Amino acid sequence: MAATAEKKVEVFDTEEDLAVSLAKYTADLSDKFGKERGSFTVVVSGGSLKWSKWHVFWVDERVVPKDHDDSNYKLAFDLFLSQGAADDYETCLKHLVNSGVIAKSEASGFPKFDLQLLGMGPDGHVASLFPGHPLCKESKKWVTHILDSPKPPPERITFTFPVINSSANIALVVCGGGKADVVQRALGNSGKNEEPLPCQLVSPEGELKWFLDKAAASKL
Ligand SMILES: O=C1O[C@H](COP(=O)(O)O)[C@@H](O)[C@H](O)[C@H]1O
User: Enzyme group, top EC level (predicted)?
Assistant: First the structure.
């Protein structure tokens, strides 16, 4: 069982101030791990990176239902987009751990990234781990897939909590008034009897630092 992470919260006047501080935080860790380990492993999130604007097209498709065995969609989904993609990603991570590019946590045996830059949705989800979803309890896999994400698109792959929480450092970056309620629930004193949100399950081996802009922190 990992020790509880050291948690810091910093609030910035503007998103720009936050970005400058986050860049310096990342650069300092890059310098530190570069000297200590000879490499720096950093994980980034999606969300506001506009992945939802990607459009993927099939070159052809058979005129059958999407779940029909003859469907090209089903084939690609079963073998690649769901299991396949998660397994490929996990295999790739295993190679990088075995070759020493990614460190390995002595405590958990999972990959230990130097820094994970995580966002958080207005429902408190991190990565593609959503409130109340059974994948939040995955304890063995490094990468898993979700077929029913409540936020589109429904089909995603995601790091699991053991990988997230084996990280040396995590920056949880949250901007905008639309997330003020969930920030209040996550960091305030209310809701102690409620089931913890995914963002509250984030607990790296080293430091957890919340980077908030004023709007996101407005209800604290
Ligand atoms: O779906 C996702 O959402 C979260 C939060 O995204 P944001 O647009 O509200 O900042 C993101 O961190 C995660 O990587 C992504 O898959």
Answer: hydrolase
